[in-house]
Specification:
With about 325 residues, this protein is an alpha/beta fold. The chain is built from 11 helices and 16 strands. Helix 2 crosses helix 11.
């Protein structure tokens, strides 16, 4: 008998498919390997099922997006967990996550963890009311509540949802497929165990020496929460993404994309070109300096990668 459903769990070569409220254990047909394909959690599939025997995945539906780490598809939104300390909050890392998700066409959401540690680390009452950063040389991280409130306001104006409270976060998961991601040690597993205890995730001990945690994800699985589905992802110590050219990078910064329609040149890089609307907006403080600087850093990395690749190609030819 053939049925349609969605893969909700992948473990040891088995794919568990939900269909009409029931879960079926299946395997993938060998012809998927020959085609270079592999079913992943989140896939909508056609599968066969026989009484008293395991079923087989027969066909995989078209994916609207997918992640490699973990292997998961058809995601609506992603929660990025960023901690205030240990590891320290980083606007640069956050913007990298945002670029990654924008490029994947996954709606980003941001949850700030360890705010209680931030309050304990405030030096004096002046720091609690005046936004500040750690130092003039590092404008990508903050040291007090006021700075985080300003950050929340700034990024919500761009169009991102920023959460300090778990109840508000959970209410935004209704009816959506959501993945959780974040830098290793940022408290992602602790957050998931709090809002979805049935996940029973093992929390890696934070290494004081390395300043990062050990992630222990063993398999990929959806869990039901707030009328939606959620999934965990491994912690990131670094972030690689598929943005390899300036137009894609420009599109991954929503506020730059909107303003760049006023640039004189269609593929303006917002660096040296005349009549650049983005640079005018920067001078008028209509966009965040940190966002522009992080855009430039990513653009430089893309250009350096392309130059290195071109040199290797030249040597091989």
């Amino acid at each position: 008998m053939k049925k349609n459903g969605r893969i909700v769990k992948s473990l040891a070569g088995f794919y568990y498919v939900e269909s009409d409220g029931e879960i079926y254990q299946t395997r993938a047909r060998g012809n998927f390997r020959k085609k270079g394909m592999k079913p992943v959690v989140g896939d909508f599939v056609e599968f066969s099922t026989e009484e008293n025997s395991e079923g087989y995945v027969l066909a995989i539906g078209e994916r609207k997006n997918s992640l490699i780490r973990p292997s998961i598809a058809n995601i609506d939104q992603a929660v990025i967990i960023m901690s205030t300390v240990n590891p320290n909050f980083s606007l640069n890392l956050l913007d990298r996550f945002l670029v990654f998700l924008e490029h994947k066409m996954i709606q980003p959401m941001v949850y700030i963890s360890k705010l209680d540690l931030l309050a304990d680390s405030s030096v004096n009452s002046a720091e609690k009311t005046n936004p500040s950063v750690n130092s003039e040389s590092d404008k990508n991280t903050f040291t007090n509540w006021a700075a985080y409130e300003k950050f929340k306001k700034d990024y919500e104006e761009i169009g991102y949802q920023i959460f300090f409270d778990t109840a508000d976060l959970v209410s935004s998961l209704e009816g959506k497929v959501t993945v959780f991601m974040g830098q290793t040690g940022a408290g992602k597993t602790t957050l998931l165990n709090k809002i979805a205890p049935e996940m029973n995730l093992e929390t890696g001990e934070t290494s004081e020496k390395l300043g990062r945690g050990r992630h222990t994800t063993r398999h990929v699985e959806f869990f039901e929460l707030a009328g939606g589905l959620i999934a965990d992802t491994p912690g990131f110590s670094s972030l690689d993404y598929e943005v390899t050219n300036q137009p894609d990078l420009n599109a991954a910064f929503p506020e730059l994309l909107k303003i760049s329609h006023g640039c004189k040149f269609r593929e303006c890089t917002h660096t040296h070109e005349p009549n650049c609307a983005v640079k005018v907006a920067l001078e008028n403080q209509e966009i965040l300096t940190s966002r522009y600087e992080n855009y430039l850093q990513l653009l430089n990395e893309i250009n350096n990668t392309r130059e290195t690749y071109a040199k290797k190609r030249k040597k091989q030819s």
